[in-house]
Design brief:
Blueprint: H1 17-27, E1 37-41, E2 51-56, E3 64-68, E4 77-80, E5 84-88, E6 97-102, E7 110-114, E8 124-127, E9 131-135, E10 147-152, E11 160-164, E12 176-178, E13 182-186, E14 196-201, E15 209-213, E16 222-225, E17 229-233, E18 241-248, E19 256-265, E20 269-272, E21 276-280, E22 290-295, E23 303-307, E24 316-319
Length: 333
């Protein structure tokens, strides 16, 4: 008789209906070998990088090589479904390229389409498995923007206009968290540091709406989330910050203190599965390869996860099991 493996770390074997039902109800999981994979693409070393690393979110350990982006760049928007990871825009040089990879394999990125806002970077990005959305940041030449764009993740196409932020803003990189209905972005600069948090409804085009405030004004922060709670980590005030704030995505209101990173840093970008938020790289101000993680449901300080393959800052991070994806999607969480 075949052995079944109804757990989040091993999907091989035969799953009975009872086991699948139990796992969905108690864990939100489904048999799938790559449901805990996260990718970190590009960044600055300080020269622009094309490296894509991957980790397994349910374990700890150093990142492994996945492949390369089509263009070396930093500060790009990153988003994902259960099957695809996507990176849009970026700088060094200013590019309008949108790349994608298939999460379950390893290999180099392929062309997805173009972002007509050439060199849009240092913005915020999120996805719900159907749409990938990004907004704000710098354009080529250093001009700030309030533009919000989106793509349909299952297709290949150019960017589509979504709406506008409440103000032109950059430096949210990559301070955006999401559920499968909302994207919530925090911090940035207008040009001075701000504590603003605003949100969009991902499946409905339109302008962003006020959500509340961070505990401290800052830019260059990272974001990661379950489907209910988002955490904003690090950033810059007058110097690097180790602050981690949290918000309840379905409500509105000010952020509350969650804990601290292992060190004060900016440009440490985040992604997640339903249990863990991970933040990789960043500047202290020296560029580091450190990966930290938190248990999203429990406030507390960061724990060491491992290291990126190359020390870098301002990467684009995404995963196949983040908070924007439906609980009952066919993937392990």
């Amino acid at each position: 008789m075949a052995t079944s493996y109804p757990d989040r770390t091993n999907a091989r074997g035969i799953w009975s209906i009872d086991e699948i039902t139990k796992n969905i109800k108690t864990e939100g999981t489904w048999p799938g070998a790559f449901g805990n994979r996260a990718l970190f693409g590009g960044g600055s070393t300080p020269s622009a990088s094309d490296v894509i690393d991957y980790i397994t979110l349910s374990s700890t350990g150093d990142a492994a090589d996945f492949g390369d982006l089509t263009v070396a760049r930093q500060g790009m928007a990153s988003m994902s479904s259960t099957t695809r990871g996507i990176w849009a825009g970026g700088a060094d040089p200013d590019v309008n390229t949108i790349d994608y990879v298939t999460m379950a394999s390893t290999g180099d990125a392929a062309d997805f389409g173009d972002d007509q806002n050439t060199g849009q970077w240092k913005g915020g990005s999120c996805s719900n498995g159907v749409r990938g959305v990004w907004g704000g940041g710098n354009l080529g030449g250093g001009n700030r923007t309030d533009v919000i764009s989106y793509v349909l993740l299952a297709t290949t196409s150019d960017r589509i206009d979504f709406g506008d932020l409440t103000a032109t803003r950059f430096g949210m990189n990559i301070g955006m968290v999401c559920s499968n209905t909302r994207g919530v972005m925090g911090g940035g600069a207008e040009p001075g540091h701000v504590d603003k948090i605003e949100y969009i409804t991902i499946n409905t085009e339109g302008n962003s709406v006020d959500f509340g405030d961070l505990s401290q004004s800052r830019n260059y922060l990272g974001g990661a989330s379950s489907n209910t709670k988002g955490v904003f980590a690090g950033g810059s005030v007058s110097s690097e910050s180790d602050i981690v704030d949290s918000v309840n995505i379905a409500s509105t209101g000010d952020a509350v203190n969650f804990g601290d990173l292992s060190a004060a840093k900016n440009f440490s970008v985040g992604t997640s599965n339903y249990q863990r938020a991970v933040f990789g790289g960043g500047g202290e101000p020296t560029i580091v390869n450190t990966i930290n993680y938190f248990t999203i449901s429990t406030a507390g300080d960061a724990v060491d996860f491992g290291d990126l393959s190359v020390a870098r800052t301002a990467t684009g991070a995404c995963s196949s099991a983040h908070g924007g994806l439906e609980v009952f999607d066919p993937t392990t969480r």
